[in-house]
Amino acid sequence: MRVLLVLSTFFICYLPILFYSAFMPYLTRKTESFGVSIPEEIYDDPEVQRIRSTYRSSVLAFGVVFAIFSLFTGLAAPLTVTYIFLPIGTLIQLVIMAVFYLHGHRQMKSLKEKSNWLSNKQQVTMVDTDFRKRKLFVSPLWFMLYVVGVAITLGIGFTFYENMPFRVPMQFDFSGEVTRYAEKSTGTILFAPLMQVFITFIMAFSYWSIGKAKQQIDVSHPEESIETNRIFRYRWSAFTVFSGLALVIMFGIMQLTIVGIIKNTLSMIVVPLGFSGIIVIAAIVLSITTGQGGSRIRLPFSKYNGYVNRDEDRHWKWGVFYFNPDDPSIFVEKRFGIGWTNNFANPMSWVFMIGLIVLIVFVGVVSKFLDV
User: Fold this and answer.
1) For position 372, what pLDDT does the model report?
2) I need a surface site. Which of 129, 142, 215, 247 has the fewest CB within 10 A?
3) 91, 121, 151: which is the final residue of a domain?
4) Residues 236 and 314 in one domain
5) Would the pTM of this model clear 0.70, i.e. be above it?
């Protein structure tokens, strides 16, 4: 089972992080490069292309070497070292990718200052007052399936409670050996539904935030930009709903193992790995086909009108953290990455983040109280 541990970490964590990071400059909007706003026609400038390709090559070269090193270390090292090294290796990957990004960000910022691309450009901000009336996300009725999933999982637990073994395996190592048991109790069969409810809250909040996020219209092609951004939100809302539903189903299957219907306890390892892999692959495919803000969606674009988006670089720290007290928005599109980030100058942004932390702690405390 050591091989399963190492390969699953390799294919579910290391490789997705590597390729996601390496090709991110090609998935972002053409009006932004390494967190720096640029006119769209500058995207294909030879110097800008060189910064992108240098970043991509550097990340791939380091990432491949580190991934191979991690693979062989995970397979050859003592098992205790493998358990410690693999998650730490993932963090090391993320830190090094951040270093390469910051180098690219500094290069782009310096190039922009030197080239003065915006000197003769008319900077414009555009808002579509009917944007919220468009079909931005899938129907919220899909969340009723979450409720059904929680109800079924609860029903399975109470229906088969009498036939459960007195000691229930709750944690396993990657050799398939049970590392922790829980005594048969009501709390044991409430663990999976509790996690399903937690997932429901997280996904419902993510779904809501997609609809509330700030508009970002490319003023050089406004009509097309509005439509691609609408499609972008719709696709990610669908991903949010259905990936969350997959996790609800996953905990339902785990409940079958807890109550003893599924006898093979390895399902407690294989099932989470399988569902995680499917979600990761779906996220990668969606990122590649959609791009940030819908930048990779192919629509017939009108001729460039000469306008450029208003330069807001001063509000973006390192091109990653958005801090604008004059902007009432809570959520805004990332400049480097797929999805949304917070306006850290808006107090509600901190309320939501602290609320999420409190929710996570609450779930952890309740889990301990349930003795699972």
Assistant:
1) 55
2) 129
3) 121
4) yes
5) yes
